[in-house]
Design a protein that fits this description.
The complex is a heterodimer of chains A (about 350) and B (about 250). Helix content of chain A is about 40%, strand content about 20%. Chain A has a 5-stranded mixed β-sheet with strand order 4-5-7-6-13, sandwiched between helices. Chain A has a 5-stranded mixed β-sheet with strand order 10-12-11-14-15, sandwiched between helices. Chain A has 12 helices and 15 strands. In chain B, β5, α7 and β6 form a beta-alpha-beta unit. The termini of chain B are far apart. The relative contact order of chain B is 0.15. Classes of the chains: A alpha/beta (about 350), B alpha/beta (about 250). Chains A and B meet through α3, α4 and β9 of A and β1, β2, α2 and α4 of B.
């Protein structure tokens, strides 16, 4: 298929359909409402299900019900709406149901603002819901990658029987870029007859299926959590994704950034390169599981003197960067929130002032 | 010799955890009998609430999902929208449906979702130990209204059937009880009617069942039945609140 120019939110919507997900429930919220507006007519074209629920709370349980019935289903929202869905995400993890959530982040806390932000990093990767639950979290840096990650999200959710989140900032949703929907990312839903409440007749079974997260017996609950933990450990072994950019040379500074922020950093790195300053970049594509080893190895490169974590938040991913670097190099955080994205000029200045700290420069 | 009475196939042999005098067991049986009679066990999905009936799937033997508190109608919506061929019912208490889940039930009913809700109203929170519910009667003592429900502070009990019946969208809304055999027969008929409307893809169907909670009311089972008759039924009158029109209205087409 040839490239088409699309808004990120619309590409996300179309990508879900191309991935074989024909069921969508949502509640409007800026800056992701175009997903619902697009699917309101597009789902009708493909004979799919579109429903605008009465709240994010209700929508998240429509997702639960549909996922429990064994179909591919997804929703999209933005930060405050995701907070309302976080209860259901915990229930989905507990009941081991696959579903896809897209969070097009805006600034917070509270009602915050409607401009781009990366302020939900900790919520998505560490604290999405009560209990020992984890989301698989992917972060695209543009419209093309957002579409591809949406298409990958469904088989990943089914592989782990766990919810998957695409964590994009408002820019990813709002900007227009050329996008191509790759045929090779089409996938078919995996067999769900062992657990889905899709009707005994439907799966030609004499025994019923139960979808639940209540385990009153302490040992049984502990066992359920061990199953979940094994899955989260398996994610770390099998599905970590990252991009290493300009890491071949002898860089003295390593930047770690994701999403829109990593693109701005790439612009700064190109300018610095023209000035003879080498800067490496590790861009996590999965935020959970986190590319700890990649960050650690890149930071420990002999030439590297300092690690910079640059975010559109008040310092969230920096905790994972510090955890990965394990004190081998100093880690400095830089960021902004509220909607102003740090500029290439700011990053160039930051790199130079950091280099000045090291006498060998 | 012909068998004239037996355990419904859709009812498991598990002894229930319900208290003596509780009517959940009777209502479970009526649901199970209906599933058997309509021969829909192989395509039925139940949704258990948070409340005393959280383990309803231990007794009603068909596919089941367990809901978060109050969210069963949203889950039923999700299931029914993606699999309209399935028969879906929620089984909810008054704390679950009329308090924390009021938003979900009103909007599901108003969209005319084609599932069935069995609403067990015993005017109190059972599982958490007898706290005040939106359906608790004026003056009724509970662990969180130890001096009796003060209506000046918390309002009057909500009549959910009438509230849902006020929606313009066509629906089958009825209130029944199971405290005497004569009522049990009518409740059975109502539950069967509700499932039948769903199978005909006609409308949202809702059966409120006025029920007892001797343990949390602090009564014997007999006293509880009498109190239901004397106090609850005058406030929660029995009968159909709303039935779907024979002709499909223009706005639903």
């Amino acid at each position: 298929m040839s490239k088409v120019l699309m808004k990120g939110n619309e590409a996300i919507a179309e990508a879900a359909i191309r991935a074989g997900c024909l069921n969508y429930f949502a509640y409007p919220i800026t800056p992701q409402s175009e997903v619902a507006e697009y699917l309101a007519w597009r789902m009708q074209e493909v004979n799919g299900v579109f429903l605008q629920g009465e709240s994010e709370v209700a929508v998240s349980y429509m997702i639960f019900g549909a996922a429990g019935a064994g179909v591919r289903v997804f929703t999209t929202s933005s930060s405050p709406g995701i907070s309302l869905m976080s209860e259901a995400i915990s229930y989905l993890c507990g009941a081991q149901l696959p579903a896809v959530f897209v969070n097009i982040m805006r600034g917070g806390p509270g009602l915050g603002g409607i401009l781009p932000s990366q302020g939900d990093y900790l919520q998505a990767t560490k604290g999405i819901g009560h209990g020992d639950c984890r989301l698989f979290v992917m972060a695209p840096e543009g419209v093309q990658e957002a579409a591809e990650m949406v298409m990958r999200a469904f088989p990943l959710a089914e592989k782990y029987r766990n919810p998957v989140m695409i964590l994009g900032d408002g820019l990813i949703g709002q900007m227009m870029e050329p996008v191509e929907f790759p045929d090779h990312l089409k996938s078919v839903p995996s067999n769900k007859n062992t657990w889905a409440t899709n009707g005994m007749d439907h799966r030609k079974s004499k025994t019923r299926n139960l979808v639940r997260s209540l385990f009153l017996d302490s040992q049984i609950l502990n066992n359920n959590n061990l199953i979940l933990r094994d899955k989260y450990e398996r994610m770390k072994k099998e599905d970590v994704c990252f991009e290493a950019y300009n890491t071949e040379g002898d860089y003295r500074i390593l930047i770690v950034a994701y999403g829109t922020m990593s693109r701005v950093c790439k612009t700064a790195i190109a300018t610095l390169k023209e000035q003879g300053i080498d800067v490496g970049l590790i861009r996590p594509q999965t935020l959970f599981p986190y590319p700890e080893a990649a960050v650690r190895e890149a930071a420990r490169k002999e030439s590297c003197r300092h690690v910079l974590c640059i975010e559109m938040s008040m310092g969230q991913m920096v905790e994972d960067v510090e955890r990965s670097v394990l004190g081998a190099r100093p880690v400095k955080w830089y960021g902004k929130c509220g909607g102003d994205v740090p500029t290439p000029e700011e990053i160039i200045e930051l790199v130079k002032s950091t280099l000045a700290l090291h006498k060998s420069y | 010799m012909a068998k004239t009475f037996q355990k419904p196939q859709a009812l498991s042999s598990t002894p229930t955890h319900y208290c003596p005098g509780c009517t959940h067991g009777v209502i479970h049986r009526l649901v199970a009998e209906t599933i058997d009679e309509l021969a829909i066990r192989g395509r039925t999905v139940g949704i258990a609430p948070v409340g005393c009936a959280v383990l309803a799937y231990n007794y009603i033997d068909c596919d089941f999902q367990e809901a978060a508190h109050g969210r069963a109608p949203a889950m039923a919506t999700g299931i029914k929208r993606v699999r309209p061929d399935l028969i879906v019912f929620t089984y909810q208490g008054d704390g679950d449906l009329a308090s924390i889940g009021m938003g979900e039930i009103v909007h599901a009913a108003n969209r005319g979702e084609k599932f069935t809700t069995i609403f067990v109203n015993n005017a109190i929170y059972g599982m958490t130990g007898g706290q005040m519910a939106p359906t608790t009667m004026p003056g009724q003592r509970t662990t969180t209204s130890p001096f009796g429900r003060k209506t000046a502070e918390v309002g009057m009990p909500i009549r959910v059937a009438e509230l849902l019946g006020s929606l313009v969208t066509p629906a089958f809304i009825t209130r029944q009880t199971v405290i005497r055999p004569k009522y049990i027969q009518k409740t059975k008929k109502a539950i069967r009617q509700a499932f039948t409307y769903q199978m005909e893809n006609r409308c949202f169907s809702f059966v409120e069942v006025v029920s007892t909670c001797p343990t949390n009311w602090g009564m014997t089972p007999q006293e509880a039945i009498q109190w239901t008759e004397d106090v609850l039924l005058p406030y929660y009158p029995l009968g159909d609140v709303k039935t779907p029109p024979e002709e499909e209205p223009a706005h639903a087409k």
